[in-house]
């Protein structure tokens, strides 16, 4: 099997496992973890644009929980694409860029998807403190777990398939 | 264009078609993916038993608190199955398999196991609808605790809580918390008291709630359309 095909199938497997994990165990702690998004951002460093799009739509197909298009699904499409083009615009150490885009991706996803719950907690009913702590706890947990998971996947893929044109 | 890219484009087209025109294929596949395999006793569902227990406790508290008979608010309710739930961070939404065509209307009250309040209808589509559950950060409603009917404000979230509970009352751990909001039938179980603390400003008590059941395992619900307006008409 050619290397480009082999990495696609490896990443396909990682995304598939991430989907099952997010759906089945994602809310074990009460908070969902966005590990599919994290895997897709990592994938954007290793795949061609079309390969990445296939996996993005695979993720949307399984994670979409309502008819039609939602802001969550648009973010799901845009953030890995942003990472894909971003790494070309801002070259440098791949692992450093990887962490940067992972952190940015998780942050932007929270900002777009959870802006309304945050707004409600902040000004909706005057119970700013306790609700906001819950949200910050969720964000911090997701952020740390997401970046660590992403770095692990990034490192494994980089070790086996690190492209020569990137400075690792 | 290379042959490989054509194959990838074909795959993308298939996924986009399914997502936009046949999303139920995804929901069904997803429910198979997350099904509990190897459950030795599927007939005895612990989650169901806990739900039933919650509802019995709520019923008991109702009879201790109010003596009069309640109107039959369940008449005309729509039974729906749970399709999928929100897979991301803070919101807690659930997709049901009934929509406009089945008679579901926005703001309908969603209950499970006869007497347990799950949430309310947020969006209605042709054959599906989305409910916002009591675990959603945006949820706020009036509720009461136990046989003495201690009042509080239910604030949704990963750890739902009852705020604005008077400092002068004694709240017992394990007491049932039930709905007391004009927008819902009175006395629907919500959860039970887990812990009791003073609020940050020390003016009220704050009660942390335990649902006692796994919301992700609820499969069937009853939707009561326009509960409030029906009730006012009686």
Question: What does this entry look like structurally?
Answer:
The complex is a heterodimer of chains A (168) and B (234). Chain A is mainly α and 168 residues long. Chain A has 7 helices and no strands. The longest helix of chain A is centred in the last third of the chain and has 34 residues, at 128-161. In chain B, strand 7 (150-155) and strand 8 (161-165) form a beta hairpin. The longest helix of chain B has 20 residues, at 46-65. Chain B is elongated. The model of chain B has no long low-confidence stretch (mean pLDDT 81). The interface between A and B is large, with 49 and 47 residues.
Rg of Cα set of chain B: 21 Å
Q: What is the assembly state of the chains in this entry?
A: heterodimer
Total number of β-strand segments of chain A? 0
Q: Which structural class fits the helix and strand makeup of chain A?
A: mainly alpha
Helix content of chain B: 10-25%
Main sheet characteristics of chain A: none
Strand-pairing-aware structural class of chain B:
alpha+beta
Could you list the spans of chain A in which at least 5 consecutive residues all have pLDDT below 50? Answer: none
Rg of chain A, please?
17 Å
Shape of chain B: elongated
**What is the mean predicted local confidence, pLDDT of chain B?**
81
How far is the N terminus from the C terminus of chain B?
Answer: 69 Å
Summary?
Chain A is mainly alpha-helical and 168 residues long.
Keywords summarizing the entry:
heterodimer, A: 168 residues, mainly alpha, 7 helices, 77% helix, globular, B: 234 residues, alpha+beta, 6-stranded antiparallel barrel, 24% helix
Write the layout of secondary structure elements.
The complex is a heterodimer of chains A (168) and B (234).
Chain A (H helix, E strand, L loop, with lengths): L2 H23 L9 H9 L5 H15 L7 H19 L4 H20 L1 H10 L3 H34 L7
Helix pairs in contact in A: 1-2, 1-3, 2-3, 2-4, 2-5, 2-7, 3-4, 4-5, 5-7, 6-7
Chain B lengths: L2 H19 L1 H11 L12 H20 L12 E8 L7 E4 L12 E4 L3 E9 L4 E5 L6 E6 L4 E6 L5 E5 L10 E4 L9 E10 L6 E6 L9 E5 L2 H7 L1
Antiparallel strand pairs in B: 1-2, 1-12, 2-5, 3-4, 3-12, 4-5, 6-7, 6-9, 7-8, 8-11, 9-10, 10-11
């Amino acid at each position: 099997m050619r290397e480009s095909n082999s990495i696609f199938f490896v990443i396909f497997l990682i995304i598939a496992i991430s989907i099952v994990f997010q759906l089945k165990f994602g809310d074990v702690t009460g908070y969902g973890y966005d590990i599919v998004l994290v895997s897709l951002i990592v994938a954007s460093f290793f795949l061609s644009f079309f390969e990445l799009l296939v996996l993005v739509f695979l993720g949307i197909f399984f994670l979409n929980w309502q008819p039609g298009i939602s802001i969550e699904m648009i973010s799901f499409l845009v953030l890995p694409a942003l990472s894909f083009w971003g790494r070309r615009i801002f070259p440098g150490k791949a692992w450093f860029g990887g962490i940067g885009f992972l952190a940015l991706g998780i942050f932007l996803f929270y900002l777009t998807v959870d802006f309304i719950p945050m707004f409600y907690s902040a000004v909706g009913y005057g119970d700013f403190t306790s609700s906001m702590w819950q949200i910050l706890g969720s964000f911090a947990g997701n952020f740390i777990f997401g970046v660590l998971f992403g770095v692990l996947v990034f490192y494994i893929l980089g070790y086996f398939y690190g492209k020569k044109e990137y400075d690792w | 264009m290379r042959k490989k890219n054509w194959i990838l484009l074909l795959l993308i087209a298939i996924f986009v078609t399914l997502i936009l025109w046949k999303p139920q294929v995804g929901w069904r596949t997803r429910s198979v993916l997350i099904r509990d395999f190897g459950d030795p006793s599927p007939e005895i569902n612990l989650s169901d038993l806990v739900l039933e227990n919650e509802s019995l406790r709520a019923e008991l508290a109702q009879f201790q608190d109010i003596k009069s008979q309640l109107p039959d608010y369940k008449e005309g309710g729509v039974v729906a199955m749970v399709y999928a739930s929100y897979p991301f961070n803070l919101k807690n939404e659930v997709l049901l398999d009934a929509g406009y065509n089945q008679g579901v209307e926005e703001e309908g009250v969603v209950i499970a196991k006869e007497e347990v309040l799950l949430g309310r209808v947020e969006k209605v589509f042709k054959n599906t609808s989305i409910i916002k559950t009591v675990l959603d950060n945006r949820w706020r409603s009036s509720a009461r605790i136990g046989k003495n009917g201690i009042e509080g404000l239910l604030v949704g979230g990963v750890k739902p809580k009852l705020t604005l509970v008077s400092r002068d009352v004694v709240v017992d751990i394990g007491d049932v918390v039930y709905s007391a909001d004009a927008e819902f039938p009175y006395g629907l179980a919500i959860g039970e008291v887990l812990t009791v603390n003073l609020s940050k400003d020390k003016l009220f008590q704050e009660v942390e709630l335990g649902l006692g059941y796994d919301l992700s395992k609820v499969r069937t619900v009853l939707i009561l359309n326009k509960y409030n307006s029906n009730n006012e008409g009686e």
